Amino acid sequence: MDNSIFQAYEDEIQSLEEEIKLLAEKYEDSQQESTFFSEEEILMSIKSFQKEFEGESKGHESPSDLKAQLESLEADLSFLMKFTGIQFTSHSKKTVEKTRNKTVQKHRLSGDCHSMSFQLEFQLLEMKNKENVSAVITDLSVVMDSGEDSDMSKFVSSIEEHGNLLTFFRSLSSYAEWFEHRRCTFLHFK
């Protein structure tokens, strides 16, 4: 047989092995998340969920109300995407640590803002007190195709240092919009 055929089979085998490894990791993550709770906690959670569901179902008179609410939320989301230019293309969440008062989750986001793509990776630390819940972003990492723009690189470094996602999204929206305008203008004169 030809070496190229063997190479194709080897590539396919390697691809399948990587897929199996990823699926095994996802399975372990889901098993790990479910082992954080005792049977009593799971039963209490199910009972509270059922009570909430019964309360919500009494508040909604019919499925048409739910459909109208869903359509309203979709319209709001569409408006926000048009207004900001930010569209998320993927999101993944992995629980790293969970205790009674503390939860640490690792998030990965990717998306586009006008013509600029971005990827975010951060950990969200949630601390629960008797009265409230506080959340802190740690280990923020931002990857963008900013090219040779040193101002953007400085901005990204500052955002990563302070962990301020709101500032990042506000600034990204403005910067990407004007970046697109500049690009179109320069293309016009070329």
Describe the structure.
The protein is an alpha+beta fold. The protein has two domains: 1-53; 85-189, no CATH class. It contains five helices and four strands, in the order αααββββαα. Strands 1-2-3-4 form a four-stranded antiparallel β-sheet. The chain is extended, with a radius of gyration of 23 Å.
First-residue to last-residue Cα separation: 53 Å
H and E order = HHHEEEEHH
Low-pLDDT residue spans: none
Supply the number of structural domains.
2
**What's the overall geometry?**
extended
Rg over CA atoms? 23 Å
Mean pLDDT: 80
* Helical fraction: 55-70%
Percent in strands = 25-35%
Strand order of the largest sheet: 1-2-3-4
Profile the largest sheet. 4 strands, antiparallel
Q: Report the structural category.
A: alpha+beta
Number of strands: 4
Helical element count? Answer: 5
Pfam family, one: CENP-P
GO cellular component, one term: nucleus
Coiled coil: 6-33
Protein name: CENPP protein
Summarize this structure briefly.
The chain has helices at residues 3-34, 39-59, 63-84, 150-162, 165-189, and strands at 86-98, 102-113, 116-128, 133-144. The chain is α+β, with helices and mostly antiparallel strands and 190 residues long. Keywords: Coiled coil.
Strand-helix topology:
Elements: H1 3-34, H2 39-59, H3 63-84, E1 86-98, E2 102-113, E3 116-128, E4 133-144, H4 150-162, H5 165-189
